[in-house]
């Protein structure tokens, strides 16, 4: 929220009546988002802990399961998300300059990259389905039947990635709604900090994936 | 882009420098991790992989999320969650590592 | 209308024709500012949202209390003839689920915290008023799911939802109940988030951290637990739902999963949740005791730090719920040793309350009676907690009525007494009306006596070996069980009284002045009930809290 936000013309935050000053209001918004992100971190930490415990209990089966995940799609998707973080940072920088059109373009690019991530993820699930890597589907054969404990890790992979996907989908939805608002005149004069606050959320979904990718795909290979 | 004045272009470049460098650093670190994961060059490579992942997380927090420009309170909030994750892992592992 | 001596002579409250019209220096209070249904259900006023919560959790308290009464009814006879086994299992599960998640956890924070924190720190509202309203709707949505599971036929897993019982063996409506509890967690998170941000950013000029009332400190500590613990149970419950719906196997030994992992994740939240229930109560007591001793709170900073200390230490002790459940011996020893550390900040608080009472000018009005009851029962509940943290004793009394008695001394003797004490203390502030003091004292005594007759025999029962969660028991335990059930009827009467006379007071009570107890704190500087926007002008805070006539000598040095 800090750097350069006050500088540009037509960029600012409108005071809501129950706050005393704009500074107080901005500070509250930033702190509120960080408090929310704390809870997101601990939410995913429970899943990461489960992954670690599975690895400790069944090392071979977990390795076998991890080797069957689509490593390269995961890597590609990480690239996509890192790029989306770059465009989100771009949107924030331009919002501080008051360059509304460029900001809106960066926001649309961010949403598009998020959607691309989901598309790759969908393809990955589809491929997994065809390779019989969905052990939670009771009626279907499971490719790694010989290592029964591997199903736990594969199922956990689905819970973790779909929870992350849910966060990303929510993020894209909010981003598109905000892009629509932000494309109208006067937005940056009243709500510039919304871009910053949402940016924190977007970067954090990225951060969660940066953790999920090695934990699910890489370290157990 | 084409219709931008030189001045505007300079401002844009100045503002995008850090984000672009950050993304470059993240992609580089990701490259290291992917290479390690694909080749598995030595035993216990996971230690190095987790260190690389940690470096990426710190980069995002410190630079992308601009914690470095925030007051101490926000820094505390950014860090305290990781500390609590540490409690969760450490106390649970006292069980699993000593069964 | 003015029956009885304690009732005032002013007559009807809400339709009082003598209520003067609002003026600039005396604006309409928050109850009368608007009258439509919409102005209640879409309000963003923290005071109105507090009352929405108060009504909801009271309804859940009634559900929880009725099921508790039925459980005690079943236990009057040793042969389990009152209900079927299934029905009995469902009754104690509903009692536990409703009381823990729909009464105790939101009880003090969502009602008193919501109403009082902005008033106490001199703010116009919480930082995020819409989020505050949303948290109530989230709460009601979760409640709806849980009620649906009850209506469809109930749940029989106990409030802990331990797997594999909850995933592989139970044939009841586990998933809707789990969804309900998961959703309610988000309402806690939103409330906690709002409090943390509000306390950090919305304090009035001069309201430094060490001028905050202890009530605000304890709510800050509670909110940290809301934020840091709740997501972990959310994810544990999500995994449990997946386990039941898709048999993902992570908690299922049949596939190589580990049920103990669920317990780790569950207790990482649910042990700190004890402090979600206890800390706000400690805040209430820390307000009541100085007011009715007319004496400065003894050791203010220690009490404040103890709240943060409790909220931190409580995250290191969850394994003491799992001593006999298959965790490693070393882990059990570590959790046992760490659990003893909890006694230190708890004792700091109790010593400081008693030191505040010492040489104070005591007024034994209703809130103070509850506070005194709280201190005594909390000591007993806390000390028996040390028994349970001891590995050897825990082996002996694990899963017996000793545990049940212990946590009811904390949950009922602690939280519920603090809740009722706070309700009587701030009722004039909430409603602008005084209740009839004599009735208040009678019900405080009834609750104290009824509570002890109900739960003290359970310590003995547990020590003698009566297991919890069974309604068929050896006949030699019958006498103590009847005694306990008899006590619960006294307790029930004690609960019904306040519901009647407090509601009666809303319409027929004597008008309350702004500060009926001669108490300190910003909430007593505004009218009763407060104006819709809390303060007519932004308050300034020039002095320490608890600036009562009698000052304590804390260090041997004489202040003043």
TrEMBL record, chain A:
* Localisation: Cell membrane; Membrane
Record flagged with keyword Transmembrane helix: yes
**What kind of membrane protein is this, topologically?**
Multi-pass membrane protein
Q: What is its main location?
A: membrane
- UniProt cross-references to InterPro entries, sorted A to Z: Cyt_c/ubiquinol_Oxase_su3 (IPR024791), Cyt_c_oxidase-like_su3 (IPR000298), Cyt_c_oxidase_su3-like_sf (IPR035973), Cyt_c_oxidase_su3_a-hlx (IPR013833)
Query: This protein's superkingdom?
Result: Bacteria
User: Can you give the residue ranges of the Heme-copper oxidase subunit III family profile domain?
Assistant: 31-221
Q: Which SUPFAM superfamilies match?
A: Cytochrome c oxidase subunit III-like (SSF81452)
Segments crossing the lipid bilayer:
34-57, 69-92, 104-123, 156-177, 198-219
UniProt entry keywords in alphabetical sequence: Membrane, Transmembrane, Transmembrane helix
Q: Which family does it belong to?
A: Belongs to the cytochrome c oxidase subunit 3 family.
The name this protein goes by in its record: Cytochrome c oxidase subunit 3
Originating species: Methylobacterium crusticola
TrEMBL record, chain B:
Organism encoding this protein? Methylobacterium crusticola
Alphabetic keyword roster = Membrane, Transmembrane, Transmembrane helix
In which domain of life is the source organism classified?
Answer: Bacteria
| Protein name, per record | Oxidase
Transmembrane regions: 47-64, 76-97
UniProtKB/TrEMBL annotation, chain C:
State where the protein is found.
Membrane
Q: Which InterPro entries match?
A: Cyt_c_oxase-like_su1_dom, Cyt_c_oxase-like_su1_sf, Cyt_C_Oxase_1, Cyt_c_Oxase_su1_BS
Q: Which UniProt keywords apply?
A: Electron transport, Heme, Iron, Membrane, Metal-binding, Respiratory chain, Transmembrane, Transmembrane helix, Transport
The answer to whether the entry has keyword Ligase is no
Give a Pfam family name: COX1
Lipid bilayer topology = Multi-pass membrane protein
Similarity-based family: Belongs to the heme-copper respiratory oxidase family.
The name on file for this protein is Cytochrome c oxidase subunit 1
Q: Which organism is it from?
A: Methylobacterium crusticola
Taxonomic path:
Bacteria, Pseudomonadati, Pseudomonadota, Alphaproteobacteria, Hyphomicrobiales
* Gene, per the UniProt record: ctaD_1
